[in-house]
Specification:
- The complex is a heterodimer of chains A (1321) and B (83).
- Chain A is an alpha/beta fold and 1321 residues long.
- In chain A, the strands form twelve sheets. Chain A has a seven-stranded mixed sheet with strand order 42-44-43-45-46-47-48, with helices on both faces.
- Chain A is globular.
- The two termini of chain A are 50 Å apart.
- Chain B is mainly α.
- Chain B has one domain (5-78): Non-ribosomal Peptide Synthetase Peptidyl Carrier Protein, Chain A.
- In chain B, 48% of the residues lie in helices and 0% in strands.
- Chain B has helices at residues 5-15, 42-56, 62-67, 71-78.
- The two termini of chain B are 15 Å apart.
- The interface between A and B is medium-sized, with 25 and 22 residues.
- Chain B: It holds the Pfam family PP-binding.
């Protein structure tokens, strides 16, 4: 570029605003505005003159901004005087019903208008008379012109000028410093060493990408919101005073204290130990900008650790040090920090809430009329902005919250605002030295609600035991049917008598209250007799599941030291050294059939259940009679059983659900129905039992319930009355399916750990409900706490950890006092001496007082900083007819390669993973589309019916596997290659005929493979070879042995390339040669190679062939084409050689898109159909014409870009080559002459492209925009409109060079696949 | 009472959270030192302006002080030359 562009450059701050507007030209969010409330007489004519004069003095206001080569420029604008077009609206609104409201409406209407930066003027005034001596002055300016401080400078000068004019005097000289000096200062900085140092500082500070604290649900699209919600409040005078002169923190200022308070609030709500807040800074101290009304402000990210022992004073001091440090590097733009860190675009925030402190005097005086100024709009709000300001009008400090409506609704914003004000009050009242852990974020009212109202569960229960009510039934209705197991039926009298005799035998062996008795029996009447007998003897039973491995059972027996173990002599139990009782071999007929005497109290243990411990050693949970009695009495009250009910017992006795299955029906005179051993895993066997035995009540773990519903088993269960579900999160889809298939049957969702007597909360599902299924409200005499990290109660809507207290808590872990003490801790909210249990589960209160379960404290699903609700993806999957059930989770099968994986069970028709992903891509944002989907016949379940995550297979990447593809290796080299493929791809095994790219290989992984092949086999593998021979078999056949002539493309081969290199550098390269669909032809970008498209393969239908078109001259022995038309005609001949007639599918990135368009025109003119023309961020020649093409440096940059390095400023070919070699790039393995040719090709392509004249293509162009801001801001896809029949666009949140890299290429492939699928139909 | 260079130094030290009555080097900054680097910000600056207006009847604008933030520059601006 030689000729100077007209106008002036933009400051970096202005450019930030320009690009922000450019991202969404129709958004009014970049409008800023203030309103001055003038009370007194005012002469509108003089006022207009003062305005006109001030605008004349403020050069920055008189600008419009246009796109230009080398970045946007600002051009001066002639502003007409008042009366001749000056943008001032004067109106007398005194006759309106509510003049002030009328003025407000005018202002809001004006603020809602998006501004065309190229047109201007980009400011506007309004002067509204709303009373005899009251005026409202409205001033709107686009953020590209002015920031808040700039507004203040303008307002002050207008007041000064008016005052002078009103006195008949000439206003003094302009107080403003030169805008051009500001531009010069900005330009100097950007070329300075300080700029580079600042950039390095911020990169270093955020190198670890700290998590962004989030107060609300994530939401919003790729674009910032166009509007904002606002809540305003004035702090009570006492709070203002305490913030302004904080006792105990003399050095702290109120902005620092408010910032510290916001950091505390954010840390607590987001459950973070460290927060990153955004600080809008005036960015003018020590600069000429202090006197320039312009856009200068910046936002700086502040990392702030918030420890529970910190005091407000300490936090404020830390904030002050942080701000001081940040300000030293504060000229570096926020937008650039984000860009440097790759944090542009959707879901890639750098900071949480912004805290904007405005200490400036808002008082003005227009001759005799005093005025106060308030801000109406301060720019876009990404998430939440806290404005704190003092207008110096005696009203003290004000705190406004402004929020992105995509993330906060009005109620949520109001709640956050109210809580923050309340917190400020309490923080300052308590004195700044108090540890912050003492403060809750909940208000007193919220605290009372979540601790009290929601936990109002007191109910009187008699002091009984688990067994007492059963013995009462035995006594009063001995003839009633107690138990059914297949053909066997026992009455209460029979069952009681058998159990009583065995109990007497146990007593004779020393069993008494407090003693433990092991029971190792399969599900059978004998098991029920044994459990009752242990309880009747006063002991606590320890279930030993006969299906468990013997060593595990032996460990439990050794740990629990039972008095004896009841078995059946089947050799299931290893020798434990404990006495064994075999009831079948005993003749107990001589013992009385009535209960033995025993000094049993409700405080004695009823059972001991072992649960897995995080350290690997199971721990025995000891539960008292009182605890389980409370649980069963609540259940009978809430969901009463009658004598006619039949309850299914199918849960293995080692899991706590079995406790209510066994004992609840026996306590209530109902019938216990035993499923066959093992039947709990077989939905059809269960359905048969339910049907044949007339079961009315049963339990399912949600995973099993889904299987049960999916397999058509449910239809046979007409007699069911209620189903209880617990053990894991109940998906809403499962509940909805239940309601459809079993209308009239109640579904209850229960939640609770073994440590709190089975269940502590309950929720009854209702058909038609949406959203996550809550775990509900606490049961009788139970308190549920949702606590933050400081153990303070969370208000409704805020996530915390679940703690449980009340009657049902277990006594603790058997023989593990230290472990017990860490999980059962003092309950600070209960009566003195009471305990609470820490669950490790996350949850939050709904406003209605139900708890929603939100996962584990230790199992958060988060991908690339984005929180993902698997339930949402699961819902989308199960909405597809070919999916019956779905589970979505995050896997990391290759180190560092965390990805979302979906597991589905088939519906009808049979699901195809690729197709499922395409359909999801059509309804879900890209990050929510699983990278892989695995079809399973059934979900693997743990013995207790939960989803067995560990047993889920690692996903096989998309593509047809099976048959011949899985052929095992036949030669040592094939063996080595299959092994290396599997290693690099992170797969358990790879077949000889499976393609590297079909299995999910990318060019980066190809580099790893080449390295491993070199190490293991001692041969060079060029990436091009891999394209030609992508399977282990083909590669084994093609690779030369060590010592042989090195294959072409090897780094040492400086001469004419051999066969391998030839193919990889040919004009038409099969990236995937096979497949029966019409091939996709992908045209190279400027550099001439088309390898960049290999990343598409994994996301496209495996039957979709893909050919790359590559530039002539890559071998360095051909002339380069003379026109783009000639090149397109050449490529058309090439593709017709493999596909003589259409329909054709064309794609091109960058220059490749322009070539593809020219090819499409040629094909169409030849009468062929072109059914796909995909343009990847390619812009027509018109947009480039007249602009300088790339020189050597840009061409070398393009070469680096092809190798995946997004970098500029590599000075020489030698250094570029060195970079490629150092970074292990596959390109470094290209022949020297190819590397030498690439820059020439780049330059030539740019030249041809600029000279090209487009003709019209009648079809549709499928466009993909790299939506991140770019320096070439003038580029617009709309420039294609004259040359295409239609244009359909998809935005990708990336820069142009990143478009063909993960994860964007995957998104692109999914979108492309969806379109191709439509064509295939 | 007229504002002096010494009073300016003491008030600045206080605004920066130091106690000028305590011996120590915490507030021993040079008269030419950039006060922004020591933690002076717009709020502290505003409070100094308010204090000097109240206690010494000095009128000075925010920009005047913020443009050249050092004790020496401020003294040149605010302290009347000894007569």
């Amino acid at each position: 570029m030689t000729a100077a562009a007209p106008g002036l450059p933009l400051t970096a701050a202005q450019a930030g605003m320009f690009y922000a507007q450019d991202l969404d030209p129709a958004s009014p969010a970049l409008n800023t505005a203030e309103c001055a409330d003038i009370r007194g007489p005012l002469d509108p004519g003089l006022f207009a003159q003062a305005l006109y004069r001030t605008v004349g003095e403020a050069e920055a206001l008189r600008m419009r901004v246009v796109r230009a080569a080398g970045g946007p420029r600002q051009l001066p604008l002639v502003i007409e005087p008042p009366g001749s077009g000056f943008p001032l609206d004067v109106a007398d609104l005194r006759d309106r019903t509510d003049p002030e409201a009328a003025a407000g409406a005018l202002m809001r209407a004006d603020l809602a208008l998006p501004q065309d930066l190229a047109a201007g003027p980009l400011f506007r005034h309004g002067l509204y008379r709303v009373g005899p001596e009251r005026w409202l002055w409205y001033h709107r300016a686009h953020h590209v012109l002015l920031d808040g401080y700039g507004h203040a400078l303008v307002a002050r000068r207008v007041a000064e000028a008016y005052t002078a004019l009103a006195a008949g005097a000439e206003p003094g000289p302009s107080p403003f410093a030169s805008f051009r000096r500001l531009l010069a200062e900005d330009g100097e900085y950007r070329g300075s060493a300080a700029y580079a140092a600042d950039r390095a500082y911020w990169r270093g500070l955020f190198a670890d990408r700290p998590a962004v604290p989030v107060l609300a649900g994530e939401g919003g699209g790729a674009l910032p919101a166009r509007t904002a919600l606002r809540r305003s409040a004035r702090l009570p005078a006492a709070v203002t005073e305490r913030l302004s002169a904080p006792a105990g923190a003399p050095g702290a200022t109120w902005p620092e204290l408010v910032l510290a308070a916001q950091a505390l609030y954010t840390a607590r709500v987001a459950r973070a130990r460290e927060v990153v807040l955004g600080l809008p800074m005036m960015n003018r101290l020590g600069s000429a900008a202090l006197r320039v009304p312009a856009m200068v402000m910046n936002v700086l990210p502040l990392r702030l650790a918030v420890g529970p022992r910190d005091s407000l004073a300490e936090l404020a001091a830390r904030a002050a040090r942080g701000i001081r440090e940040a300000r030293r590097h504060g000229r570096y733009r926020y937008e650039e920090i984000r860009r440097d860190l790759g944090l542009l675009g959707e879901g890639r925030a750098l900071v949480g809430p912004l805290v904007n402190a405005m200490p400036f005097d808002g008082r003005l005086r227009f001759a005799g009329a005093p005025a106060t100024v308030r801000t109406l709009a301060a720019g876009p709000v990404e998430d939440l902005t806290v404005h704190v300001y003092d207008r110096s009008d005696g009203t003290g400090l004000h705190v406004d919250f402004e929020a992105n409506p995509a993330r906060y609704d009005a109620a949520a914003l109001a709640a956050h605002h109210a809580r923050f004000l309340d917190l400020l009050d309490r923080l300052t009242a308590a004195g700044p030295r108090l540890p912050l852990a003492r403060h809750a974020v909940a208000t007193a009212a919220e605290r009372a609600e979540v601790l009290g109202t929601f936990n109002d569960t007191a109910a009187r229960v008699p002091p009984t035991t688990l067994i007492g009510p059963i013995e009462a039934r035995e006594l009063h209705s001995p003839g009633a049917c107690a138990l059914v197991a297949g053909e066997v039926a026992l009455s209460y009298g029979e069952l009681g008598a058998r159990a009583n005799r065995l109990a007497r035998h146990l007593v004779s062996l020393g069993v008494r209250p407090g003693a433990v008795v092991g029971v190792c029996l399969p599900r059978s009447p004998e098991l029920v007799v044994a459990l009752l007998a242990v309880l009747k003897a006063g002991g606590a039973y320890l279930p030993l599941d006969p299906e468990h491995p013997a060593p595990r059972l032996a460990g439990m027996v050794a740990d629990a030291a039972p008095v004896c173990v009841i078995g059946d002599g089947e050799g299931r139990l290893p020798d434990t050294g404990r006495p064994t009782v075999l009831p079948a071999t005993l003749d107990l007929s001589g013992l009385p059939g009535v209960p033995p005497a025993r000094p049993l109290t409700p405080r004695d243990p009823a059972y001991v259940l072992y649960t897995s411990g995080s350290t690997g050693r199971p721990k025995g949970v000891v539960v008292s009679h009182a605890a389980i009695d409370n649980r069963l009495r609540w259940m009978q009250h809430a969901h009463p059983l009658t004598a006619r009910d039949r309850v299914l017992q199918k849960t293995p006795a080692g899991f706590d659900v079995s406790v209510w299955e066994f004992f609840w029906p026996l306590r209530e005179g109902a019938t216990l129905v035993l499923a066959e051993p093992g039947a709990h895993r077989d939905p059809h066997a269960l359905a048969r039992t339910i049907e044949e035995a007339g079961v009315t009540v049963c339990h399912f773990v949600p995973s099993m319930l889904e299987v049960f519903l999916a397999q058509g088993a449910a239809a046979r269960c007409a007699g069911l009355r209620r189903v209880f579900s617990s053990g894991e999160a109940l998906p809403r889809e499962t509940a909805a399916k239940f309601a459809r298939l079993l209308p009239g049957v109640a579904l209850h969702n229960l939640y609770g750990p073994t440590e709190a007597a089975v269940d502590v909360t309950h929720h009854t599902c209702r058909a038609g409900d949406t959203g996550p299924v809550p775990i509900g409200r606490p049961v009788w005499n139970t308190r549920v706490y949702v606590l933050d990290d400081a153990l303070q109660p969370c208000p409704p809507g805020v996530t915390g950890e679940l703690y449980l207290a009340g009657a049902q808590l277990a006594a603790g872990y058997l023989g593990r006092p230290a472990l017990t003490a860490t999980r059962f801790v003092a309950d600070p909210f209960g009566p003195p001496g009471s305990r609470m249990y820490r669950t490790g589960d996350l949850g939050r209160w709904t406003p209605e007082g139900e708890v929603e379960f939100l996962g584990r404290t230790d199992h958060q699903v988060k991908l690339r900083g984005q929180r993902i609700e698997p339930g949402e993806v699961e819902a989308a999957l199960t909405a597809l007819p070919e999916v019956a059930g779905a589970r979505v989770l995050v896997r990391e099968d290759r180190p560092g390669d965390r990805r979302l994986v979906g597991y589905v069970t088939p519906g009808a028709p049979q699901p195809e993973p690729d197709r499922l992903r395409q359909r999801l891509a059509a309804v879900l944002p890209a990050p929510l589309v699983p990278g892989a989907i695995v079809v399973l016949d059934a979900f693997p379940l743990t013995p207790n019916g939960k989803l067995d995550r560990a047993a889920l297979p690692a996903p096989r990447p998309a593509g047809g596997r099976g048959g011949a593809a899985l052929r095992p290796p036949r030669t040592p080299r094939e063996e080595a290659l299959t092994r290396l493929f599997a290693e690099v791809l992170g797969l358990p095994a790879v077949g000889c005929e499976e393609g590297f790219f079909d299995l999910g290989g990318t060019s980066l992984l190809a580099v790893s493979l080449a390295g491993r092949v070199r190490e293991e086999l001692g041969v060079e593998l060029a990436i091009g070879t891999l394209f030609r021979a992508p399977t282990p078999a083909a590669l084994a056949a093609g690779l030369a042995a060590p010592g042989d002539h090195a294959p072409a493309g090897g780094a040492g081969d400086a001469g004419r390339g051999g066969a391998d290199g030839d193919d990889a550098l040919g004009v038409l390269v099969p990236l995937r040669g096979g497949g029966d669909l019409p091939p996709l032809f992908a045209v190279h970008p400027a550099g001439g190679l088309s390898w960049c498209y290999s990343g598409l393969l994994g996301g496209l239908d495996p039957r979709q062939p893909v050919f790359g078109l590559q530039a002539r001259g890559l071998r360095g022995d051909e002339p380069l084409p003379g026109t783009l038309e000639e090149m397109a005609a050449d490529y058309v001949r090439q593709i017709r050689a493999v596909r003589p007639h259409g329909p054709y599918r064309l794609l091109g990135w960058s220059v490749g898109g322009v070539i593809a368009h020219a090819m499409a025109v040629l094909l169409q003119e030849a009468g062929e159909e072109v059914e796909l023309l995909a343009l990847l961020d390619a812009y027509p020649a018109d947009q480039w014409r007249g602009r300088a093409g790339p020189g050597e440096a840009e061409a070398l940059t393009a070469l680096l870009r092809m190798a995946g390095f997004d970098r500029r400023g590599e000075p020489s070919r030698e250094e570029v080559l060195a970079t490629l070699r150092r970074e292990g790039s596959a390109l470094a393995g290209l022949p020297e002459r190819t590397l030498a040719a690439v820059p020439d090709i780049v330059v030539n392509n740019a030249r041809l492209m600029r000279a090209h004249r487009h003709r019209h293509f009648a079809g549709e162009a499928l466009f993909f925009t790299a939506a991140a801001p770019r320096p070439e801001s003038w580029l617009t896809r709309d420039a294609w409109r004259p040359y295409v029949g239609a244009l359909v666009n998809h935005d990708l949140p990336c820069t142009h060079p990143r478009m063909t890299t993960a994860p964007h290429i995957g998104t692109l492939a999914a979108l492309l696949a969806a379109r191709l699928k439509e064509l295939d139909r | 009472m007229a504002l002096t260079r010494r009073l300016i130094r003491e008030d600045v030290a206080r605004a920066l959270g130091e106690d000028p009555d305590e011996p120590g080097d915490a507030w021993e900054f040079g008269d030419e030192e950039n006060l922004l680097d020591l933690g002076l910000d717009s709020v502290r600056l505003m409070s100094l302006i308010a204090r000097w207006r109240r206690e010494h009847d000095v009128e000075v604008s925010f920009a005047d002080l913020a443009e050249r933030p050092s004790v020496a520059a401020w003294a040149a601006l605010l302290v009347e030359a000894p007569s």
